[in-house]
């Protein structure tokens, strides 16, 4: 059985990954182990792009474990905010701006920032970059990407998913992504697209 570290501490991402990877990897005798189980200390996300941050996270996990690693860097780009929160999506709200920290603080801050923005201008997309590295010095990381178009709601909706899902309206489905099953979200989402690409093309 070969092992790959999944370089993420986000429980919502991990659930989505295992839904798509578990069967596929079991067939290939590959075990995907979340970095939290291997006591990997999280990388500092100092990059200026999703690609750089995903590489930093994968390299950090490879260096800490000696295993190959897969990392996800993702975020929400809102057109009316010139692409913010983007690569800073996980840390959009901060302790000192009155919203606190974490998913619900991020959502509250986003709603406040878009308070006067009409529906037609509330367009947004989720971006996801996945990076696979065979070892910490891998000179050719494999990069996969997906994006998912939607609109920011004026109030949260739905109870599934994580992060900005309660505010992300999916036009084709007529509901927020937090109202979609994990399976349906994986068929459509930025992360689902990147994972499908990876499964079709990668070489371990
Ligand atoms: O870095 P890791 O440990 O993987 O976990 P993280 O939560 O910090 O992840 P990112 O640095 O990639 O930040 C991405 C943020 O973008 C948001 N996000 C990404 N994908 C999302 C999705 O599918 N649904 C809702 N929000 C999402 C969510 O708030 C994440 O915290
Ligand atoms: Mg992060």
Automatic annotation (TrEMBL):
GO BP, one annotated term: nucleotide metabolic process
GO cellular component: cytosol
Entry's cofactor comment: Binds 1 Mg(2+) ion per subunit.
Binding site for substrate: 8-13, 74, 162-165, 185, 190-191
Active-site residues, record numbering mapped to chain: 73
One GO MF term: metal ion binding
Catalytic activity: ITP + H2O = IMP + diphosphate + H(+); dITP + H2O = dIMP + diphosphate + H(+); XTP + H2O = XMP + diphosphate + H(+)
Protein residues bound to Mg(2+): 44, 73
Enzyme Commission code(s) on record: 3.6.1.66
Cofactor or coenzyme needed: Mg(2+)
UniProt keyword terms in alphabetical order: Hydrolase, Magnesium, Metal-binding, Nucleotide metabolism, Nucleotide-binding
Quaternary organization: Homodimer.
Family, similarity comment: Belongs to the HAM1 NTPase family.
PANTHER family: INOSINE TRIPHOSPHATE PYROPHOSPHATASE (PTHR11067:SF9), INOSINE TRIPHOSPHATE PYROPHOSPHATASE/HAM1 PROTEIN (PTHR11067)
Main function: Pyrophosphatase that catalyzes the hydrolysis of nucleoside triphosphates to their monophosphate derivatives, with a high preference for the non-canonical purine nucleotides XTP (xanthosine triphosphate), dITP (deoxyinosine triphosphate) and ITP. Seems to function as a house-cleaning enzyme that removes non-canonical purine nucleotides from the nucleotide pool, thus preventing their incorporation into DNA/RNA and avoiding chromosomal lesions.
Protein name: dITP/XTP pyrophosphatase
Organism: Thalassolituus pacificus
Organism ancestry: Bacteria, Pseudomonadati, Pseudomonadota, Gammaproteobacteria, Oceanospirillales
Gene: rdgB
């Amino acid at each position: 059985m070969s092992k790959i570290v999944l370089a993420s501490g986000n429980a919502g991402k991990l659930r989505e990954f295992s839904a798509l990877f578990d069967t596929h990897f079991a067939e290939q005798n590959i075990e995907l182990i979340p970095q939290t189980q291997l006591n990997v200390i999280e990388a500092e996300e100092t990059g200026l792009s999703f690609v750089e941050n995903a590489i930093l996270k994968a390299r950090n996990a490879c260096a800490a474990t000696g295993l190959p690693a897969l990392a996800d860097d993702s975020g929400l780009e809102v057109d009316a905010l010139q692409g913010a929160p983007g690569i800073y999506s996980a840390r959009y709200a901060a302790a000192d701006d009155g919203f606190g920290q974490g998913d619900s603080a991020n959502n509250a801050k986003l709603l406040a920032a878009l308070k006067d923005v009409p529906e037609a201008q509330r367009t947004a997309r989720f971006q996801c970059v996945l990076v696979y590295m065979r070892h910490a010095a891998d000179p050719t990381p494999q990069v996969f990407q997906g994006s998912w178009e939607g609109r920011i709601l004026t109030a949260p909706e739905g109870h599934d998913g994580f992060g900005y899902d309660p505010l992300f309206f999916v036009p084709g489905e007529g509901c927020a992504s937090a109202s979609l099953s994990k399976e349906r979200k994986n068929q459509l989402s930025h992360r689902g697209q990147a994972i499908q690409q990876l499964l079709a093309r990668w070489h371990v």
